[in-house]
Please model this.
Amino acid sequence: MKTASKKVINGWAMYDWANSAYNLVITSTIFPAYYDAITSTKDATGNVISHKVMFLGKEFESASLYNYAIAFAYLLIAILSPILSSIADYRGNKKSFMQFFCYLGSLACCALYWFKSDTLTLGIACAIIAAVGYCGSLVFYNAYLPEIAADEDQDNVSAKGFAYGYIGSVLLQIICFVFVLKPELFGIVDGSFAPRLSFLLVGLWWMGFAQITFATLPKPLAQQPLTPPPSPEGRQGETRGLWAGFVELKKVWRQAGHLPTLKKYLVAFFCYSMGVQTVMLAATLFGSQVLQMKTDALIICILIIQIVAIGGAYLMAKLSDIFGNFKVLAFVVMIWVGICIAAYFVTTSTQFYVIAGIVGLVMGGIQSLSRSTYAKIMPTDTPDTASFFSFYDVTEKVAIVIGMFSFGLVQQLTGSMRNSILVLIVFFMAGVVMLLLILKQQRAVSKA
Model:
């Protein structure tokens, strides 16, 4: 196949531009910082004395509650995505489901405007729904990659999407940054208004720029029904279609059993994703609660990560052309191991900034390269890209569930977020081992 026109590629990449504002403002910067601020108990002098909160009648460490909530959101999407992808394949309306989840997530972000200290349940619920919308739409967004880009172009097209995402999210972050840090310039006297306005802007930004994507993406490739011909009752056949996604996941895993490289890669991806995604989701709370960094310092830090990540995505694509995807991935995951070890011992804001810069370099690269590597090693004769990418997305989401839950549980049990980092090191090391096994297998094949 030939790579689609520049208009289609740019339109596809614009969805990264649209939804990455959620990933930056809601999951990485302003929302976690705002959440920490309104869930912290302070003494008369303004010093934080407790991070305990009550939720549904039970006491939690506030960071642990946040980690559990995000883990629950990703568990929901891990369960839902096989059903959703099978419906999309069954009916051929991949774009419609992508739109539904886009609007679900963006409206949940808008609803966070009403999240205050006395509406914790609303805030947690909206955070969960927004995460489901974000991840749900990506199931269908990622499935377009092998349909619009030839094998040799997928690394660069994937990197382009991540680069667009980082640029777009940084632009909106700067706008929100001005509101949050200089509210007096706009006559804002309510300390909670600027962050809540940022959440509203994220929803509108996500929903608005996504229209470019929806206007330019082609119709999905013709798919074969995932189920036998419907029964005379009609509804019975459609019901089978609802559950066909789980059957398809089983088929994908069986196919992977005959493709050693694909199977080992999925295990490696699962292992290091438990670490990567948890670092990205928990970094802000680590900075605020462990290092006592101020909100403005944290936002600047995350901005550094996003800016550096733009170059990182393209750098990894270039390196993969020279050294091959698996060698570069193994090297990058080793860097993540070093990042976690350094984070365990970090004590100052300056050290945190240095680590953040390194995280930015490898964050965009590992996400982009992981997606394009999977697209490359998928069977080339399958018309059902959605099922394979559904498996990829479920793998990532289950990894996030385990990663976030483990991180929150270790903190809840030990009272220290530093101890949670030790779990991440184990995840990354397991990923490195699997990638090295793939490289060993490739060398053996080349010698044969």
In short: The domain at 7-39+56-217+236-447 is CATH 1.20.1250.20 (Growth Hormone; Chain: A;). Residues 222-236 have pLDDT under 50 and may be disordered. The chain has 15 helices and four strands. The two ends are 31 Å apart (CA to CA).
